[in-house]
Amino acid sequence: MGAECKCNCEQDKSLDALFAQNKGNPNGLIVVMAAIQESQGYLPKDYLVKTAEELGVPLSDVYGVATFYAAFSLRPRGRHSVNLCLGTACYVKGAPEVQAMLEKEMGIKAGNTTEDRRFSLDLVRCLGACGIAPVLTVNGEVYPRMSSDKVSEIIAKYE
């Protein structure tokens, strides 16, 4: 590879230590990637290149892990993770209307992050809470029986 890292990896001393600890060790891949995700909020390309070089892993393998695990994101994520369930019960009980209001309120479509990186909005297939449908979660906090008229109030709590 030999490409010089253009990231600010060196500015994060804990990442430097983790790279040094795992130098040439492909088994440290997920640990290193999780630390980068935690530090940066996502997996920037330059950090993935540095990871491949430091651990001695092909870049294609690093990308393979990054795209396989849902916990990793190749795009910047918001500080607040908003998930709306679109499972059958939630869908039937009004989730599409809640989705429309969330997108309007945040100014983004589902699957994206606001420009200020405050929110990421994702649609999920089931949160396992059909009895309180439709369900919205923000940073893991559950909001049951959602309706479009509750969206503004909930979003305001996280601004």
Automatic annotation (TrEMBL):
GO molecular function terms attached to this record: 2 iron, 2 sulfur cluster binding; metal ion binding; oxidoreductase activity
Keyword terms: 2Fe-2S, Iron, Iron-sulfur, Metal-binding
Superkingdom in the source lineage: Bacteria
Cofactor requirements of the protein: [2Fe-2S] cluster
Protein residues bound to [2Fe-2S] cluster: 85, 90, 126, 130
Record has Metal-binding as a keyword: yes
Family annotation (InterPro entries): NADP_DH_HndA-like, NuoE-like, NuoE_dom, NuoE_N, Thioredoxin-like_sf
Pfam families in the cross-refs: 2Fe-2S_thioredx (PF01257)
Keyword Iron: yes
Record family assignment: Belongs to the complex I 24 kDa subunit family.
Protein name: NAD(P)H-dependent oxidoreductase subunit E
